[in-house]
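Hey L., structure's done. Input below.
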Amino acid sequence: MRWKPVVVQSERSDGSLVVAVGHPLVDAYLKFLRARARPNTIRAVAFDLKVFFTFVDQTPVRVTSADVMAFITAQRSGDGGGKVVSIGVGDDDFVRGPVRLEILQPSPRSLV
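Output:
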């Protein structure tokens, strides 16, 4: 059975936001991010990860650089088979230039 990413939000007893996508590795990253970012940023990252993993249809450990490039290409062209919305490159409302993708690597201590 394949993993289907779903964004789930809850609130801890101390009032802090908990956002999960349903995979231990991705959820550990969101936990890492929770200590460093505001709630709306965490929500946005969780949704972006859901969109990405829905598009590539792979678990995080199986994602390749080719999957990342296919996702970026689909965003740029709008050819995501309904899974990806074009970022509008070439439209006058957007700056033309390279797409820069940064993936933050949590330290092993932050995964505990």
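Residues 1-57 form one domain. The longest strand covers residues 8-11.

-- N.
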